[in-house]
Write a structure and sequence with these properties.
The chain contains seven helices and no strands. With 200 residues, the protein is mostly helical. α2 runs antiparallel to α3, α5 packs antiparallel against α6 and α5 packs parallel to α7.
C-alpha cells in the first residue's frame, strides 16, 4: 500500500513540476513585457508633452501591442496580474488619457485596452500629475490660456476621482494619489497666477 502511495505522490510531483516550470517561464516573460510596456508608455507621455504627435502615437501603439502580449499570458495565469504587471497596466491607462487629452484622440476605455478598472482609475490619477508638466511647459512659452485649459481639465478630473469613496482594498493607492494631487493642483494654480502677474 505504501509503495502505491509513494508512486502516486511521485506522479503528482512530476506533473506539478512541469506546470510550475511553465509558470516560471511565463512569469519571466511577463516581467520583461511589463518593463517594455512601462518604457513605451513613458516615451509616449514624454513625446506628448513635447507635442510630437506622430512619434507619440507610434510609441503608444507599440505599448498596446505589448499589453496584448501580456494579456495572452495572463489569460492562462490570472494570478500573475499584480506587481509589475499591474504597474504596467496603470502606466498604459495614464498614457491613454494623456494621448487623448493632448491630441483629441478617441479615448480607449478599460474594456478596449483589456485592463482591470482599478489600474485604469489609478492611471487617470497619475495622468493628472503628468499634466502639470505640460502646464509648466506652456507657461515657459507664455501660453497662459492654454496652460489654464490644461489646469481646468486637471481640476475636473480631480473632482471626479474625489467622488470615489471606496475602501483602500478596492482601489489600492487611489486615496494617497488623490491627497497628493491636491497639493499639485495648488502649486499649478499658483504657477499660473505668477505667470499672469509677470505678464501684466
Amino acid at each position: 500500500m505504501s509503495n502505491e502511495i509513494l508512486e502516486e505522490i511521485k506522479r503528482y510531483l512530476g506533473s506539478v513540476n512541469n506546470s510550475l516550470l511553465e509558470r516560471f517561464d511565463s512569469r519571466e516573460k511577463l516581467l520583461l513585457l511589463a518593463r517594455e510596456l512601462i518604457r513605451y508608455c513613458g516615451e509616449t507621455i514624454s513625446l506628448s508633452h513635447r507635442g510630437k504627435k506622430e512619434e507619440a502615437l507610434k510609441k503608444y501603439h507599440q505599448a498596446i501591442e505589448k499589453a496584448n502580449e501580456i494579456r495572452s499570458i495572463i489569460k492562462n495565469f490570472p494570478e500573475m496580474l499584480y506587481g509589475d504587471v499591474g504597474t504596467a497596466f496603470q502606466e498604459l491607462a495614464e498614457a491613454t488619457v494623456i494621448i487623448s487629452m493632448y491630441f483629441s484622440e478617441k479615448l480607449k476605455l478599460p474594456n478596449e485596452l483589456g485592463i482591470p478598472d482599478i489600474y485604469y482609475i489609478t492611471g487617470i490619477a497619475d495622468a493628472i500629475g503628468e499634466m502639470r508638466r505640460r502646464v509648466l511647459e506652456l507657461l515657459k512659452r507664455s501660453s497662459i490660456d492654454e496652460a489654464e485649459k490644461i489646469y481646468n481639465i486637471m481640476e475636473e478630473l480631480y473632482e471626479l476621482l474625489w467622488g470615489f469613496e471606496y475602501p483602500k482594498s478596492l482601489v489600492p493607492g487611489l486615496r494617497q494619489k488623490i491627497d497628493a494631487l491636491r497639493k499639485i493642483l495648488e502649486e499649478t494654480n499658483h504657477d499660473i497666477f505668477l505667470a499672469k502677474i509677470g505678464k501684466s
